[in-house]
Amino acid sequence: MKNKELQAIVRAIGDLPPMPIVAVKVLEMPQKPDTTAGKLAKTIASDQAVSARVLKIVNSSFYSLRRKITSLEHAIVILGEKTVKSLVFAATIRGINKSCGLMEKILWEDSLGCTIGSRMVAVWFKSADPEEAFVAGLFRHNGKMVFNNLDPEKFRKVMEAVCNGEGSEEEMEALFFPYGHAEVGEAVLTKWNFSEDLAQVARYHNDISGIDPVEQSRDSKSEKIIGSTKRF
């Protein structure tokens, strides 16, 4: 996403949500050569709520580990740094919501379902890196969270109209907001300094025709990840 387009979306929508601090620190860590399991665990542990959520996910039926994991360092050893970093993003995304009600629960469950499903598809079909598919599924609809924060009543009307068959998400969003959730989702991931591939997944998860034709011809990474996420 070009900076000019990002600025236009910010002007139209307002300030985009900041990434939770612990997630920012984790995202920056791969760039530091002295990163160790201990340092990663210490960084995550700086937020007790996130630490607890990560361990809860690690010990869930999703991973089906034989023994209960009681420490972040143990989780990193068993699952690997990349997987645990992905779990940090999963543990922090709920913090984007300004309130906690039924709609927020629906959006969270949608993200979680797509996250789990996308990773499983990537593993089964070897269609993309499983952890990248995990993160892409998690943030695929973050633009909807922005809309819900911006104007819950308008967003509720959009969701109801779509459920009642009055039109597609894109058509209904255009009636109430200056941009669609896909464009806003890409803007959020761009602001958060995620890779262009993951930002493109947010933008084109419903329609890959907007991806650069040259990239499509090269069987681009973003297109492969979309292949894992669009089933959900």
UniProtKB/TrEMBL annotation:
Domain PI-PLC Y-box positions: 117-156
GO molecular function list: phosphatidylinositol-4,5-bisphosphate phospholipase C activity
HDOD domain: residues covered: 16-208
Basic and acidic residues bias spans: 215-224
Residue ranges of coiled coil: none
Region of interest (Disordered), residue spans: 213-232
An annotated GO BP: intracellular signal transduction
PANTHER family recorded: PTHR33525, RIBONUCLEASE Y
Protein name: HD-like signal output (HDOD) protein
